[in-house]
């Protein structure tokens, strides 16, 4: 069973500081040989997007992300993993998601962060509105994100 | 008993509000019959809630079978496809 102190998941409704998150994660996992981090930022689409409004289902969303992160800790030999995800109104270039993984060696940490990001784009319960030209519209899932996620299933089949 | 209904994402617009408290009648015993009851006068809402892509959570657990018995739920959430973070 995955020890609970290995997995840290937070939904943040105020701006996050990814550098502070990275620093404190590295301090927490100072004995891990490899720390990999990922930062997702709001794309401005060349000025076409004024803002994003990101919604979640409080309680449910956190638990779903915790489950995905615990799965990553089962699939790879991780010492720990962190996911911090924004909700609320965000402007272009704002940090939206920060992921970190710690492991003895780098391969596990790189793959776990990639896996977590693919699943966050498809399976994490968020709903997004885009504000552009004074209009607000709900955004539908991208087909490409679902294709990304299927990579991990194909890998599962070839490894066994 | 009083049950909280949640309409996430774009369903908020379809339901004219993201959240409402309702007293679910005894005869409403499944998600399907709950939708029939909520949207009795609103065919557009009924279609939106019954869409196959909508996921339903009862007390924050996803349920797969909308005909399964529904008893004593405190919270029921209707969720359109996730748009990712």
Keywords, separated by commas or semicolons:
heterodimer; A: 160 residues; alpha+beta; 4-stranded mixed β-sheet; 4-stranded antiparallel β-sheet; 4 helices; 39% helix; 32% strand; globular; B: 85 residues; 5-stranded mixed β-sheet; 3 helices
Structural write-up:
With 160 residues, chain A is of the alpha+beta class. Chain A has four helices and eight strands; from the N terminus they run βαββαβββαββα. In chain A, a hairpin with a 2-residue loop joins strand 7 and strand 8. In chain A, helix 2 (60-75) packs antiparallel against helix 3 and helix 3 (106-123) crosses helix 4. Chain A is globular. With 85 residues, chain B is of the alpha+beta class. Chain B starts with a strand and ends in a 6-residue tail after the last strand. The A-B interface holds A 40, 54-55, 57, 59-60, 63, 85, 96-97, 120-128, 138-142, 145 and B 6, 8-10, 57, 60, 77, 79-85.
Termini separation of chain A comes to 22 Å
Question: What about the largest sheet of chain B?
Answer: 5 strands, mixed
Which band does the percent of strand residues of chain B land in?
Answer: 25-35%
Low-confidence stretches of chain A: none
| Largest sheet, strands/sense/barrel of chain A | 4 strands, mixed
- How helical, in percent, are the residues of chain B? 10-25%
Instruction: Name the strands of the widest sheet of chain A in spatial order.
Output: 1-4-6-2
Radius of gyration of chain B: 12 Å
> What class would the helix/strand composition of chain A place it in?
alpha+beta
Tally the helices of chain B: what do you get? Answer: 3
Counting DSSP H or I runs of 4 or more residues, the number of helices of chain A is 4
Give the integer mean of the pLDDT values of chain B.
92
The most extensive interface, with participating residues per chain, is:
A-B, 25 and 14 residues
What order do the strands of the largest sheet of chain B run in, or round the barrel if closed?
Answer: 2-1-5-3-4
Q: What is the distance, rounded to the nearest whole angstrom, between the alpha carbons of the first and last residues of chain B?
A: 35 Å
Helix-strand topology string of chain A? EHEEHEEEHEEH
Helix content of chain A: 25-40%
